[in-house]
Structures are given as structure tokens and as C-alpha cells.
Amino acid sequence: RDFNERCAQCSEVNWGLTDGGRYYCRSCHNVTERTREIVNTDFMTNSRVQRISKGSRKQEKTDRVCEWYVCEGFQLVLKKQAEALEALGVCPQMKDEVLYNFWRCYLQKSKQAYCNRPAGETVKAVSVCESSTDGDSEPERSSLLHLLSLSESEGDLQTDCSFASSMSKVSESTSVYSGSVDGSLYLMKNQKEKLRMTMPMTLSFCYMSLLWLREPITLSELLRFVVEGHIPYLNVFQHFPEKMKLCGLDLKIFCVESWPVYEEVYNKMLELAAFLDLPRFPDITDSCFLHPDMLCIKYLMEANLPDELHNWTCRVVKKIGIGEVDFLTLVPGNKSTRKVKYDILAAAVIVVVLKLLFLLDDHYEWLLSDLAEERNKNNKEDGLYFEFKKWYGVVKHSLDVEQKKLDEERAKYLWRCEKPLFYSVKNKSKVLKRRQMVVNLQNQFGKLSGSLRRAEKPNPSSFQLSWSEENTDGSCFHGHSLKGILQEKCGLLTAMNPDYWLCTVKLCNEKLCGHLAHYREVDFPQSYHFVLRLFSFLLRIQPSYIHDEVCMIEHKLFNKKLYRKLKYNTVLRK
Amino acid sequence: SSHEHKVNFKKSKEACLSYIQDAMLRKQWKRAAEFLTFYVESLEKDYSREPIGPSEMIWRIGTEILCHHSHSSMKEFNCFMEQMKTLGVKRYLKVCLEHVFHLLCNGQIDEAYQNLSLAESWRFGEQTAIQDREMKLIQAYRGLLDYCSWAKQKNILLEHGPDGFADLSVEQEMHSYFRKAAVNLKEIIKIPGVWDLFVKCYVDLLEFYGDHNEACQVLNEYAYNSKFPANPNAHVYLYQFLKRQGESKKSLISALKILHDIVPSHELMIDFNTMLQKSKKRKKRRLGLEVIFAALDYAGWKENIRAWSCLARQVKQIVISEKHLDWIKQEWNSRKDWWPAFHFSRYLAKRNWQENKSLSYEKALVAGILLGKDCKYFKYVSHQGCKARVKRFRMLKKFVNRHSPVYPRISG
């Protein structure tokens, strides 16, 4: 409004304000660094905000415990995660501005803070009057009991059922059930409309911020860093300050016993973006890391495939328009467009290209490979032709080794930490005793393990598989040529392979059955399965998700032909 | 490989467990220990719905690893067991018992005794009643160790001899051990089960103090009470006891009868046959023949010279008397198809002759009667024997030739 500078990109003076409080040019969507001081009178009238920022004063007299709200806990979690991301090289804006503003906006919209009537206050009133009449307390109690007895898919944290009986006394304040003030409320009411915060959702926040800043970290990478321990997630509550006592229902909120799932984090991110009424995200252009052309380079390298394949991935991307800025950029709330999972998309493009060039029907690719091998035997000076068979052997070996390591790692995850978790003071001593015993046993058998205690977590790296051209054993295929499988037609390089088989003739309705197609290993050629397995490992997701994207790409690619004929199927299956 | 999508606590612990089991099967104890360190945190989670919880898993796996791992010591083992005892009250006595077994196997009798005494004094509400069986076992084993102490004292006393200084305190100790042992051993053998060791010790005690009636009763109960599982040893113990007591042949024979039914190949069958052969009653002699034939059906008896000599003696006696040839016929009927190859092949003839002439003698006698003088075995052995000018073989040849008309009546 009062910002009159010309936009650096398009020289217009047409400014809008992002929810992060920064000015952005409405013409070219250039986001500036200039922020506007947000003056919101609501702040002043909200005493609760003050409480959040200062912490409660009155608790000093007792045992250094303060009243804290669940959202404060999450705020701490987000802070830690952002710091970790910064340590990984993400720009500091992520933490100080983008994430923080998203979070504040969320708090506001969900009426947990920064607004006139925070939800917590009403709850308090409810619980006070509930306790006065025995009749009313029953349904309240039973629903809480029900909550606790329901074991979520992550597994329940109850260490003994006596907790249920310890809840028989409905006290004046809800703190009997949780260390936080509003823990019980948090879990109880159906908060669908308000998008209740969960631990996986913290990662949705992170990813959303990363996406906004177009940082070169994909969602699968982010989740991998979480699992590898570079980003706090499991047991992050250890870092809560001493005075924030965590017990009872807080455990259900903050303790995780499963690793976040890609789909879940992604979908929550979309929900969140819509909930916060965010505008169109900054454009994903072809110079962005997340653009399929760029990601394909990375994945081709990691998959040890020839660089020449990049031409082909770009061609496919261009042909079906998935490199377009409007396709790639996230517009929250727009239900009509299919949302883009950049990493899966890029991987799927590569798979399609491999199918285009090698067919991958368990016959043709080996045939081509034999031809290449012949040629390579007789002609060593002019650079090697790419041999599928050799590549398969090398990559499969490495993949098997890494997969085996990963499987063992998964069996070795330690979920609990030093900070004890207990529901109530009653079972605190039991929990502590157990913990002590666990530590003793770990020490005792650790000594018998022979090897040193597990090495510290590996350094975070973007590449899980690396291949060096300097290796003289010929295990790197980046520089190999595709000449053997290409031919020239009308001045254009095309594949020698004339055929293609579709993964599926008809796409399913994603909304109804959750997938575009249903992948079963036995239904498809082994080479295809191998390629899916490779990317499935790299992205740490199920092969079926990549398969879905492949189907989607194929249907775009062969759209016309599909439209014309009812059955386009030159399937060469066994 | 498992590409588990949703990796959660439960699944990763399941995977961990399968790695432990795999390592144990391959006897890779270091690796098993390594994975166990990652498994133990399962203790912090509630598994009350599972049939076997992590505490039991850890107890059993940990025990195995500590038993086999080269670097583990009894001290570590004991420390581990103490922790396991605190883990599950429902299993407390079982853990105690297994701990005691390990101590005993490692020769730590005193520690074992201490543990047993401690366990005996354990009380825990209704669990005490539920774990009654384990408690009885604990008391029984303590009784057993008391018996061992008693035996030690007894030997000391006997060494000094009747005229030597009978150390009064030793004697008193001995008696007190006897009392302690007797009380507990008596209790356990009341419960249907297989208590060979306890029974033997208890009977030993009773015999020493002259309470033969009680001993006899105990052994009879143990052998004949149908509630107890069928146990050949029970009959053996009873037989041995009766023999020691100088009981009549009649009772000895009846003691061995069931043993013959259960374990026809038992080594006592020779004694049994010997007694039966001598009996005046026809039925008993008939049974004797049955017994010795049945014993020789078993491969372990093929070269048992005593058995063959029993059979040879009885067959010879029947043939000479020319009475009850039908007994032989009956016994031979079911065996004539396979005994020739089993016992009387030419190969065996050669081998038996080479290795044990007496064995071949007895066998040749039986073969000559059952298969006739033209059978391979008899021909070979008697020929060899006569060639070597051994007198008894010449007698044997004469005998068989004289009684050769018997053969068709037997083989009929």
C-alpha cells in the first residue's frame, strides 16, 4: 500500500502482501525481502499471547513447572527443525521468516493464538463446570478413556492399564491428564475443521517452507534426513525446557513411534496450504532444482545412467508439458489440478525414458545389450556404448548391498530416549526402573557385541549412491553413449525400439481407490520392477507410487493414440 | 528384503527379532548380542496383548547368548538372571529354576542351593498359589541337594569305619539332611510325573534307614499308578529293589513283565528270560521264549552273546525234550521271512566267526535248528569250526545233524 518502489523484475508497481508479511509483485510474482511491520490490534487484547511469550510467572513457587500449551510445544519442535535445516545449508530466511510466518498464520487461523478468543479458554470453562456435576463428567471421561484405549496405528504408549483407572478422578484442572494445559482438549474434540497439529505435520510445515523458498531439498530427501537423524523428529521433546513437563496425554501428541510417511506429510501440506489461504507459491521455473529437468540430472547420476539420457528426459518433459511453470507451481486450494510430487515425477520420467529406449520387456533390453557388448569388444577407443546388462549387474549389486544395510538399520532403530515418558506420577517409578534395566541390558550385551558401539549417524548427503568416472573397473556409466540404441530419422534422433507397452490401459480414479493404478510385481517384467525398485530405494517410497506417476506420464504421452483407439496395447508380456 | 513402507516401533522390533533369531541359528553370538541391544527397549512398551512378551523373549534369548558366547562369564550370567527375575512376576519361579539348572551344570552347587532356598521363601499374593508346581519343583531340587549333602556325610561316616571315631556332629548333620531331603522328595513324587532321580534318591534314603515298606510302597506307586506316565525306569527300579531285598522269583518276574511289554529290547530281558526258563510253570517258560526272541528282534542285540546263548539254551532244551516244538514254530513263524537275512547271512557268518567264535557257536546252533543243517550260516560256521578242530563245533555239528528231522516241523 505504501510501498512505491518499482519491481526489480518487471518494473511494475503493483504490490501485494504475502502471508509471510513480505511484499510481492502481483505482475511477476517476484517476492521481495521487504517486509511490512504487521500491526495487528488483536495482539494487544490477547492476554494469552503474553503468556506464551513470557511463560507463566506463578509457577515458580512450586516445582519449576510451568503451564504450557500444546502449540508452544510444537513451536519448539518447529524451531529445532528449522535450525537443523539451516545447519544443512538451507537459507536462514526459512527459519526466521517463512516458517515462522506460516506458523503464526496457522495459530491465528486455528484460533490457538493471535486472535481474540483462543479456543483454550472455552475449554477451561467447560471442564470446570463438568467436574461439578457427576453426571456430565461421565461422557467426558469415557471418551478420553476411549481415546487412550484406541491404539493408533503407531502403537499405543500405554505401559499399563492402570492409567485408565487413575483417570477416574475428574479434577478441576485438566493437568491431571497431561503436562500441558490443553493436552486433553487437543486430542478430544474433532478438530478436523481446525486442522489439528501433529508431529508429522511439523514436517509438512517444513516442507511447505522449503517449497516456498524453492530450496533444493525434495520431500523424500527431507524425510530421509529425518530418519537419518539430521532433523529432529523422534524424541524431539527431549529438548523441551525442564519446566515444560511432559506427561499423560502429551505423550500421544509428541511421541512418535513411526517414521513419517511421504503421502501423509504431502497431503497434510496441501491441506495446510489451503487452510492458511496461501496464494500461489513462488514459480518453479526450469532453473529451479525441483524442475524435472534438474531433478532428472540428479537422479540419472545417482542411478548411474548415461548423461545422454538427459536429452530424452527433457524431450518427454517438454512433450507432455510437465515442465510448465503453471503445472509445477503449487496453487493451494485449487482442487482441479493434480498436485506435483517433484521427486516421484522426475523418477517416473526416467523410467518412461528407459521404457522408450529399452522397452524393458525382459527381452529387448538384453538384446540391445548384447549388440552393444559386441561393439564394445571390437572398438574400445571411441568410447563405450551403454550396455544394459553391465549396468544392471553393477547397480543391482550396489542396490542389494545398500538395501541390506538399510534393512538392518531399520531393525536397529532406537525409539526411546533417556527422557522418561510416563502417564502419571503413579507409574513414574516403574518407568524409571524399566529404563534403568534397559540401559543395563544394553550395556551388558553391548559389551558382548564385539564391535564398537554403533558409529554416529552418517554425514548427511544428497547422494546415496555415487559412481566415479575415475574408477578403472568401468563401473560408472555416466559417460557411456546411447549410440547403439538410437537411429536417425528425418534429422531427429529416435529410439531403435519401435514398441512400447503401457503399464495400464485405463487409469483408476485416484479419489476413489487412492491410486492411479495397482502395481503388483508379478504382473510386470523383471527389468521394469528392478528399475522401480531402484528409485523406490532412492526415494524411500513404495514402488507403486512411482508406478502411478509412470502411468500418468504414459497416458499424457500417448494421449492422442489412447483417445483414438479403444485399445492401444502392444504389450509384450510373457 | 523387506521394503517395509510404514516403519514403526512394532515392525522394526519384529525385524530386529528376526535378525536375532537368524544370528542365533547360525551361532553368530556376537551379532545376536548386537541386535539384542537394540531389541531390549521393547521392555518399555506394553505388550500385554501378545502371547509372548519382550520380557520373556529377552530372558530366553539372553540366556542362550550368555551360555554360548565365548566372552561371557558365570558372574555376568548370574547378574543377568537376577535382572530377569524382576521382570515378570508370573515367571519368577521358572526363571529361578532355570537359573539353578545352569548353576548346577556349571558345578556351582552352593550357589544353586542358595538360590533354591531364596526362591522357596518367595511369596507374592495369589501368584504363590498359581506357581505352586514350580514351587514344588524348587523344593524337590533343594531336597535333591540335601540328599547329596546327606550322601557326602554318609560316606565320611562309612570311611571312618564302625570302630573309628564316629563324629557325632557329622552323624547329626547327616540325619538332619535326611529329614530335609525326605520331606521334599516325598512331596514331589506324589504328583504324577517322571521323577526318576527323585525316586531313586528317596528310596536310597529309605533303604538306608531301614524303612523298606515305605520304599516298596513308593516304588509300587511309581510303577503301577495309572495316573503316572508310563515309565520303563519305574519298573526297573522296582525290580532292582526287590532283588536287593531278596524277594521271590515270582515277584521279580511280575515286576519285569510290564517292562517287557513296554521295552522288549531292555537289557534286563536276559535276566528275565533266565528266570523264566528255569520256572516250573509251563506258561512262564513259554513267556521266556517269547521274551528272548523279541529281544533279538532288535539290531542292538545282534551281537549280544548272552542273549544268543539264552536262546540257544532254550531251543536246545526244547529240541532235546521234543516237547513244545510248536512254541518254536509259533515264534519262528513271524520271523522266518526276515531273520535269515538279519542274523544268518553268509556275510555275518564270516564276520561272526572272525570276530567272536563263541557268538558264532551260539548262533550256529540256533540257525541249524531253525533253518536246517543246510543253511548258509550253519554250514559255514560248523565247517570252519571243524576245520579248526574245535571240539564243541564238532559236537554242534553232530547235534544238529541228529536233530535235523525237527527242522521241517518247525519251519512248516
From TrEMBL, chain A:
It comes from Oxyruncus cristatus. The gene is Taf1b. One of its GO terms (cellular component) is RNA polymerase transcription factor SL1 complex. PANTHER family: TATA BOX-BINDING PROTEIN-ASSOCIATED FACTOR RNA POLYMERASE I SUBUNIT B. Belongs to the RRN7/TAF1B family. Residues 258-448 form the Rrn7/TAF1B C-terminal cyclin domain. Residues 74-241 form the Rrn7/TAF1B N-terminal cyclin domain. Pfam families: Rrn7_cyclin_C, Rrn7_cyclin_N, Zn_ribbon_RRN7. It is found in: Nucleus, Nucleolus. Its main location: nucleus. GO terms for molecular function: RNA polymerase I core promoter sequence-specific DNA binding; zinc ion binding. This is TATA box-binding protein-associated factor RNA polymerase I subunit B. Keywords: DNA-binding, Metal-binding, Nucleus, Transcription, Transcription regulation, Zinc, Zinc-finger. Residues 2-33 form the RRN7-type domain. The keyword Zinc applies. One of its GO terms (biological process) is nucleolar large rRNA transcription by RNA polymerase I. The keyword Metal-binding applies.
TrEMBL record, chain B:
InterPro entries: SL1/TIF-IB_Component, TAF1A. GO terms for biological process: transcription by RNA polymerase I. It comes from the Eukaryota. One of its GO terms (cellular component) is RNA polymerase I transcription regulator complex. This is TAF1A polymerase. It comes from Oxyruncus cristatus.
